[in-house]
């Protein structure tokens, strides 16, 4: 009996809810016209990777604490001479300083740019604005986005700037705690390494350098996803990061 009443109630609700809908009240177009996309002009959607400076301009003068860097060419071959496809070519993170700004003011102190024209530098991976000038790609970055000076082709020789630290990453564990060998895909990326070099320290409000809290030779624990990764000539892995990303000194 209760089941019959429930059925009757549900039926009456459904009838009442849709009673006002008549087939003639809902009209749909018989055809939907789709424009021919091949004939639609998209000339306004032109995207360029770098801002192009017209040939009539012969010089770029960075302002403030900005630096103009000529980007190092992308490596098209491996060390053994194998050509790399465009998808395998890594974005360069280094180049030559071609012009610098006048510096910046911190508190009451005037601070010069930390690099000079002609220096070979490494900069943060996603820093700056790319500019095509005289047919060559350049980058305008802030002085603080320059990681360090690198006068050789080996990252182990990097001289960090400001509050940056160069760390040689510890080798990943080959086995689990139970003795099982790990594949390359399952090896945990270590966040422990040995400090290889440190910068002179950040500037205080009077323009003086504050020494860093770590020293070369320290074994440190750092934030897992911080900094920029590099590989040395001997295959060793390095990372550059700010000293604030170093969490502890191990002993």
Automatic annotation (TrEMBL):
Keyword Repeat among UniProt keywords: no
GO molecular function, one term: transition metal ion binding
Domain of life according to the entry: Eukaryota
Keyword match Transcription regulation: no
PANTHER family reported in the protein's UniProt record: 10 KDA HEAT SHOCK PROTEIN (PTHR10772), 20 KDA CHAPERONIN, CHLOROPLASTIC (PTHR10772:SF63)
Family: Belongs to the GroES chaperonin family.
Protein name: 20 kDa chaperonin, chloroplastic
Origin species: Abrus precatorius
